[in-house]
Known about the structure:
Chain A is mainly α. Chain A is built from 8 helices and no strands. Chain A folds into 2 domains: 42 residues, no CATH class; 94 residues, no CATH class. The relative contact order of chain A is 0.09. Chain B is of the alpha+beta class. Chain B has a domain of 141 residues: Alpha-Beta Plaits, CATH 3.30.70.20.
Amino acid sequence: MSVFKDARHLFRFAGLFVLAFVIFLVVRHYVVPKTFGEYGHYRGAAIGEIAAHPIKFAGHQTCETCHSDVQDVKSKGKHAHVNCEACHGALAKHADDPSAVTPVLPDTAVLCARCHTASAAKPKGFPQVMPADHSSGLACNTCHKPHSPAMDAGGTK
Amino acid sequence: MNLSRRQILILLPAAAIAWKSVLAGTPEDSPNYNMSDHWWGMLIDIPKCIGCGNCVRACQTENDVPEGNFRTWVERYHVTDENMVSPEVISPDGGREGFPVAEADAGKYFFVPKMCNHCADSPCTQVCPVGATFISPDGVVLVDQKYCLGCAYCVQACPYGCRYIHPEKKVADKCTLCYHRITKGLTTACCEACPTGARQLADLKNPNDPIHEFLKTHSVQVLKPQMATGAKLYYNDLDGSVR
């Protein structure tokens, strides 16, 4: 043991360092979440948690499974590419349980004006009117059928 | 096996890298959705935007966005000959209820919907001191709200102003590109509610996605390209005055 003759007083310090390192590893094991570093420098499980957020907008494919009659009318008109929930609002709850949650019919005076009120800021080709001059206060759906709005379309929905 | 000290020193970094990949584990085993098959972005077609605010309302409904904060919003630019550099920009309540009627004058008007750019090399994820915000393997910048401290460093770092501190949770909050929807085969709430198709969710890893044809045939730009953030929000026909 002649090699360690002058180093013996360092052993206790070395032991302390080793102990501190072990404590660090133990604490780290409990403090760092299990999935941290699964995909990168973050908690991998967070991705699944964010993906589990509830859905509010059912999506037009879901609507069309039941309301194919409306879809048929709509697909022939100017609003073919306007999704159902763009006007009717988020209705995933209605899709889950159609009888318990029934959608409220939108007020055309508010709804139509939101897109079709004339403004120089809107793209030139977009159909737009000044509601007050255009219909003198009449509701839009007096003349236009929202699902197929052209006057000669003759739709009933 | 006898290894010299030199060989061990050379092998150590290699072993460290190998161990890291072991720690990384296997990708999420989801039956229908494989993160490695997607790389999400969005196309915004400015000439189609009518400023109706449907996207803003849909986003707030879908994601329970707190009052007064926005994950997406719409700006209206008014550019005239005199103010090409600093045009008048308005966004009343984020464009939620539309915009005041504009009278035709010498200038030009257009709407610019804005939201998180889901940058591939995002400054916001780089500055997070705890690893609470990150880009997912499928290219969506997300916040781990259980891990976030609410230091707001990322809010300052975002060059596009897309983050805010949630007033009740006191943690960073932002657009998730409706991660809960796109992983189930749906489009985002803003795209679903957009009546003119001005917003289109795009999967850049899907060779059949119409985005590829669109990028080839249109004049497309990202916001602040000089910042090299790798933004994945592609704007069609973006005016040079947009900041």
